[in-house]
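QA checklist item 7 of 12: single-chain prediction sanity check.
[x] sequence parsed
[x] length recorded as 224
[x] structure emitted
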Amino acid sequence: MNGTMINRLVQKDWSFQRTPIVSAFAVGFVALALLSAGGNGTFYAGSVLLITVVIGLGAQLVIATVIQERSDGTLRFVMSLPVSVNEYTAAKLLANLLMFLVPWTALGIGTTAVILTRTGIPDGMLPFALLLLGELLAGYVLMLGVALVSESMGWTVGAMVFGNLFVNGFIYYTAHVPSIAAAMPTERITWDRPVILLMLAELAVIGLILLVTWRLQSRKTDFL
């Protein structure tokens, strides 16, 4: 594959999405400040804001770099360049994953620091918080895969809605896993079998979505 062309396509997406990424950092740090401020109300507000920032950033990146590129006719120009289907797919996956993972990782580190340092938040919340962040990452990858394969706003919004609804079910299920529920109100951080299995399941789902996306994209013959 043409590494130079892939790099240029990645840089193009990064250059156009700098403002949303910086905005996500800014609002995300406000969410972290609320989490660390103390009080149940501010903790709840910070948690909701943090989840909203991650989901909102994912939707912005996918729609702006994939769906709008198709609807605005930019895709026609891109595919007229000396770039193959696999190179285009690699560039889109690499650019979007990096643009999402940079703030996602920073906010994950910030969340971990808040939980471990703020008095009043049990350390036992950490595995639950990291599992939730992993689920949000999987939801983003699903939305990205659907957008790339379908090139449809409707299907992409459907994937986003499904992911958002699944977050609620995931939170309920994870919070009711006996070992996780028992550790959450305590200072004991438990990396037991259910936590590890859930994390491995998230990684497997992410890997499977990326693999299926790549395979389906590689079979395309028409992007116009």
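[x] summary fact logged: The chain is about 85% helix and 0% strand.
[ ] second reviewer sign-off
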